[in-house]
């Protein structure tokens, strides 16, 4: 008997060989995701953008955030960031249309992220207010390594793509073919492996800066 | 003598005599305990979430054959190759064969307890394949040539001074400054080119999603993605109990897992891996393999231990265990330490070899209290004790001692008298609330202080209460 058959047989005999009704299993599984508010934390603020920013900048996530009115202001925001850190205007830009379309004059750009890249600019598909997370999908315009190799990661996310809870991301993509990688990124890379003390920049970025584009809650 | 061949008692004595071990354990488990406690105050939904998490896992286990087949079907549709392994050896052989097939000289690994359980590090070394551990703690374990001592912080047994010394000796461009930041940087430099030049990546999975065939990893360092993206082949090894119906269920479990493990709300990186590189993708492996491993899990199902299959490997039970916090993880002798390890190791290694583990427990119930899926660990441990007794594995002295215990314990008045005497004797040796150097506690109090018993026993106070005092 193959290993597969042996294991499945052992599972069935362990369970008492009862017949499975797939429709009933599905109903039970769905029922386990009812009443989500009772099993997840509340948001930190009423408005989604405010709640998102509160999480991103909380000590637990320890990233930084700023808001801009439109994407065209992103290059200026990047310029300010570079200046604050005293970094040259040499950046890796994710090959995504919303970023490529902007006016980057004054910057030296490349789209391949080097192993020791200082700074990469990316765009997230979604933000999650519950956790202050950014969601990326691998694809033709999203190399996964670009999220992990640079020391500084600057990420643009549109205010209208901020979802309340992680569950809303699952619901938004249910039934679609998943990409090879879904990265849910929450803050910069960190480790507590030496005596439990937190150090940032373990293997991935040491700095994560989130730029939110669009109307903040307060002016809605 | 190699610790695996030593008796539990000998290992425990060695651990107690190690002057730096207790410091190292306290630094990490103390932080973990505090951070979890804070996370709980910020998550008043924990009790309800835990009940739900328990039900999700029970639902999966009750329909495990259904979910295994659904997962397999969807994983294959995503372009993955699915392999099945009955035993640890079979699982390691499959992985090594896949590495050889890929002509692998160097493999990078993401920390996975299942990988440790099936002996993968050893199997790869035996096969002459260069193995690079990329999780910082596993990297420290690899440099030190020893074994993980905790399932979340495998190098917890090392102090910063020891790590510094190893990095200076073994890294190509080691740190100059004596800070943890500088040490982490040294490891970052050391591992960077290895991520990018490996032929095969091996990871575990925190969850397997039945409805898409995706696997989920959680890390704080970002090493999982750096490991699994550049090589041509990515191999996932996972226990068959890791299934969940869908991403929504994984999310409900993640909220429990991360808070219980580190006190964070989510890990920095939560990644769902589904199949190999897709047409047009900028990066990713050409081949994606998943090895589904039984290794005793179906036996647990058969032998009345199915609650243990809920375990999501968060480590909270060991962080809160008084025995673990005195002795550390190596003493347990198996892959998994602490209370969950004391339940699991007899499954993997046989009760005869590990019968001491279910006894290394004070039955204070703390582990069950903090377990995010409410596993009745003390009951399962008691089950092993009973079985060890029934199968005649207990040595004569213990059988005799326990015989007396049973005789006395089944006669409540005698029992109360006995404990009252014992506790009074302990009080004699107590100084400022701590028991030091009491005869009979020997090795324990030579190195440790034992919390002194309360001034009066619970039964004494209870009786006073009843008398209206
Ligand atoms: S037994 Fe419970 S507390 Fe211990 S590791 Fe497993 S899930 Fe966590």
CATH architecture of the largest domain in chain B: 3-Layer(aba) Sandwich
Strand order of the largest sheet of chain A: 1-12-7-4-2-3
Helix content of chain A: 25-40%
Radius of gyration of chain A: 21 Å
The main sheet of chain B orders its strands as: 1-10-7-4-2-3
Strand-residue proportion of chain A: 15-25%
Ligands and ions found: iron/sulfur cluster
CATH class of chain A: Alpha Beta
The CATH superfamily of chain A bears the name NagB/RpiA/CoA transferase-like
Morphology of chain A: globular
The biggest beta sheet of chain A reads: 6 strands, parallel
Morphology of chain B = globular
Oligomer: heterodimer
Query: Termini of chain A, distance in Å?
Result: 65 Å
Give a count of the beta strands of chain B, DSSP E runs of length 2 or more: 13
Q: Mind telling me the CATH superfamily name of the largest domain in chain B?
A: NagB/RpiA/CoA transferase-like
Short description, anyone?
The complex is a heterodimer of chains A (220) and B (469). By secondary structure, chain A is of the alpha/beta class. Chain A has helices at 3-14, 22-31, 48-56, 74-85, 97-100, 166-173, and strands spanning 64-68, 90-93, 108-110, 119-123, 126-128, 133-137, 152-158, 162-163, 181-185, 190-191, 199-200, 207-213.
Can you offer a commentary on this structure?
The complex is a heterodimer of chains A (220) and B (469). Chain A is α/β, with parallel strands linked by helices. Chain A has helices spanning 3-14, 22-31, 48-56, 74-85, 97-100, 166-173; strands at 64-68, 90-93, 108-110, 119-123, 126-128, 133-137, 152-158, 162-163, 181-185, 190-191, 199-200, 207-213. Chain A has one domain: 3-Layer(aba) Sandwich (Rossmann fold). Chain A has six helices and twelve strands. Chain A has a six-stranded parallel sheet, with helices on both faces. In chain A, a hairpin with a 7-residue loop joins strand 10 and strand 11 (199-200). The longest helix of chain A has 12 residues, at 3-14. Chain A starts with a helix and ends in a 7-residue tail after the last strand. With 469 residues, chain B is of the alpha/beta class. Chain B contains 23 helices and 13 strands. In chain B, strands 1-10-7-4-2-3 form a six-stranded parallel sheet, with helices on both faces. In chain B, strands 8-5-6-9 form a four-stranded mixed sheet. In chain B, strands 11-12-13 form a three-stranded antiparallel sheet. In chain B, strand 5 (207-209) and strand 6 form a beta hairpin. The chains are: A alpha/beta (220), B alpha/beta (469). Chains A and B meet through helix 1, helix 2, helix 6, strand 9 and strand 10 of A and helix 2, helix 3, helix 4, helix 8 and helix 10 of B. Bound molecules: iron/sulfur cluster. Residues 260, 311-317, 340, 370-373, 375, 377 of chain B line the site of iron/sulfur cluster. The site of iron/sulfur cluster has 15 residues of chain B, from helix 14.
